[in-house]
Specification:
By secondary structure, the chain is α+β, with helices and mostly antiparallel strands. It contains 16 helices and 29 strands. A nine-stranded mixed beta sheet has the order 1-2-3-4-5-6-7-15-16. Helix 11 crosses helix 12 (about 390-400).
Length: about 675
């Protein structure tokens, strides 16, 4: 039987199947099949669209029989309103059409969670998957999705973190949309996405005129129009000189002086545009009108309590419009003018586009530049194309505000290579300078190899180990009562000891390496909460006076304010005075910055993996004996949940820790070796 005849017989096959299953034909199914027949007759792609919300349980078996040997080009299975179909029957239908499956569209929580979980764990051969408005506490795509190239998880509001191996079963994924989610961490997100070699497009927020992935179509038109506007000035003067106009859009204000002001509408305010004295026309009114249209609705990219449209990049948008020198041809031809648009930090179009439904990651300072610099194959970000000029600017912004690895290391290395270099006395092979200079520079610092090992381990542990020490409380022998830590301090000379005071006035000393109780001092009868504690120094050295000379600002860290009057932030040195760790009572994030330059090294998200809830920083300390180790006094989201001290090891990956957790509860002391 020919392909055309086979497709034409779809309707009759369905009717015969209905008779076998003693079910009445569904007119919606007949319509789907008839549409596919018409597509084949017109030499179009033959696609059967199956709408689950138009079916009943009695319809599933006849439809499944049709797809067991269907000869169409593609099958799309969609469900856009809640349906209560039998789980096994739905899975049988999907498996029957799997070989021809192209699109799975289950949005608005239209199918039950158990059905969706079975699909994600079983895997499919579909090319496009739309799961908007579904609940994902974790990215659990355990099955194989080897043909999937486009994935939409927009408005999956429970999705907050992308794990290290979440895309391992999607090797051909090219486009992913995560608008309106809770994804917030630049470092873990870019690390997870970097494992997708085919990835060319990401969305964490969308252009106001774009519902799907792809470069904004209006953007190309606007760029063409701007190019045409370069030749709009018809009146020239031989005394014309290169002039500049600067438009600053922050809280909407202008600082340019001129005699005749013009205004551009920005939201509910006006931007005053002044130009220097330019003979005849300075900037064509059509260009001003175009800027008025493009700039309308742009808001600050800083933190906000609502999810209104935001613009890409820095909150202070500077557009330099250079009116180039006008020259008249000697041959008497019409004079021409060149209007140069030079954008300081990214393309003009990307700054002017109105973006909606941002995930929290979009509010991070320099979000766009960070993602472009971290993902070199990225072609479109938030419906806005990534150009060469954007990549160059992203590299400059990244090098100014972020650290790729600790101690200014620019390339990832393995620990084994570093140990080999230490034994042989050679240095890193990534440097472009001569061998003699490399070796001499390494010998200047006795900490070179120690820091290199730290950088290597740190770079391979984007998801660090979190070790809660709550099990220590069970050794007190006082029933199920748990300790409620209020403040803690590492021991100044014994690397294994930590002391903490509780909200009930107790003082506890623990061995945090072994996970055992060292000393317990009960609260006095009249005691209140332990607000602070310190270790006594029984071997004092000279007392020396340290002066804060004049209070001048040393370093400004690029950390956005939460805007809450109840928030308090604590910051401490780590690794001696190399880095600063900072935590906030309103955020579940630990920020690590270079103490010398202020550049961000990494943010660490604190989350209780058992409850799936965030933990907020009440206090924190760095381990004085181990590089990139710290402890955090954390409070959980639920008021009834306990407070607890959590050890954080930035040099070990949490994924490796899962494999070792069965053999030991606590990790051995970190040693540098000889």
């Amino acid at each position: 039987m020919s392909l055309d005849n086979n497709v034409s017989s779809l309707e009759s096959r369905y009717l015969d199947s209905c008779k076998r299953h003693q079910a009445l034909p569904n007119t919606a199914v007949v319509s789907w099949l008839h549409k596919a027949v018409i597509q084949r007759i017109n030499h179009q792609k033959c696609t059967i669209e199956v709408f689950l919300d138009q079916l009943e349980d009695c319809d599933l078996s006849p439809v499944t029989d049709v797809f067991l040997d269907v000869q169409c080009d593609a099958v799309d299975i969609l469900c856009r309103s809640p349906c209560v179909l039998n789980q096994e029957s739905i899975l049988s239908l999907i498996n029957a059409a799997n070989s021809k499956l192209e699109v799975i569209d289950f949005q608005d929580a239209s199918v039950r969670k158990d059905i969706l979980c079975d699909i994600l764990h079983g895997g499919l051969k579909c090319h496009v998957m739309n799961l908007r408005f579904n609940e994902f506490h974790a990215f659990n795509f355990a099955g194989g999705f080897m043909l999937l190239h486009t994935l939409s998880l927009d408005f999956c509001s429970s999705l907050s973190t992308l794990e290290n191996d979440c895309f391992v079963n999607m090797p051909n994924l090219m486009r992913i949309s995560l608008c309106g989610t809770r994804v917030a961490n630049l470092w873990t997100t870019s690390a997870a996405l970097s494992r997708l070699n085919s990835l060319v497009e990401i969305r964490f927020q969308n252009c106001a005129c774009c519902k799907n992935t792809g470069s904004c179509p209006t953007l190309s038109r606007e760029r063409r129009d701007l190019a045409c506007d370069r030749n709009v000035a018809e009146h020239t003067s031989e005394h014309s000189k290169c002039q500049q106009t600067t438009i600053s859009v922050g809280n909407v204000e202008s600082s340019i002086q001129d005699e005749s002001p013009k205004f551009v509408s920005v939201g509910d305010s006006l931007v005053n545009i002044h130009t220097h004295s330019i003979s005849h026309n300075s900037i064509d009114d059509r260009l001003i009108g175009k800027m008025s249209y493009n700039l309308h609705g742009i808001s600050s990219s800083g933190r906000s309590s609502n999810a209104h449209p935001v613009s890409v990049g820095l909150s202070m948008l500077q557009i330099e419009v250079s009116h180039a020198k006008l020259e008249t041809e000697e041959d008497g031809e019409s004079p021409t003018s060149v209007l140069d648009l030079d954008v300081k930090d990214s393309s003009i179009a990307s700054k002017m586009k109105v973006l909606e439904n941002p995930s929290p990651i979009c509010f991070e300072n320099h979000y766009r530049e960070y993602m472009i610099a971290s993902l070199p194959h990225l072609q479109v970000l938030d419906n806005i194309p990534v150009r060469l000029v954007d990549r160059d600017m992203a590299k400059m912004v990244f090098s100014k505000y972020f650290e790729y690895l600790p101690y200014k290391r620019q390339h990832g290395e393995s620990v084994s290579n570093i140990l080999y270099m230490r034994e042989t006395g050679t240095s890193c092979g990534y440097h472009e300078r001569s061998t003699i200079k490399k070796q001499s520079s390494c010998q200047k610092s006795k900490f070179f190899y120690t820091r290199s090992i730290c950088a290597a381990k740190f770079g391979s542990s984007v998801w660090p180990v979190h070790l809660p020490m709550s099990q220590i409380c069970s050794t007190l022998g006082e029933g199920s009562r748990s300790l409620r830590p209020r403040q803690f301090e590492y021991h100044p000379s014994d690397a294994s000891l930590m002391g903490f005071g509780t909200l009930d006035g107790e003082v506890v000393v623990i061995n945090h390496d072994k996970g055992s109780l060292f000393k317990y001092i009960p609260a006095l009868e009249t005691s209140n909460s332990a607000m602070a504690l310190c270790w006594l120094n029984q071997h004092p050295a000279k007392v020396r006076q340290l002066l804060a000379v004049d209070g001048r600002l040393h370093t400004r860290f690029e950390i956005s304010s939460t805007g809450s009057s109840h928030n308090f932030t604590r910051s401490y040195y780590m690794n001696g005075r190399d880095y600063i760790i900072s935590g906030s009572s309103d955020e579940s994030i630990l920020r690590i910055c270079c103490a010398q330059t202020g550049r961000r090294l990494r943010d660490v998200h604190l989350q209780d993996r058992t409850l799936g809830s965030s933990m907020y920083v009440q206090s924190l300390r760095s381990d004085p004996f181990r590089h990139f180790h710290m402890a955090v006094l954390a409070a959980y989201v639920r008021p009834s949940s306990r407070w607890g001290i959590v050890k954080v090891n930035l040099l070990a990956s949490s994924h490796h820790a899962k494999q070792d957790s069965e053999s030991q509860d606590f990790y051995p002391r970190f040693g540098w070796g000889g």
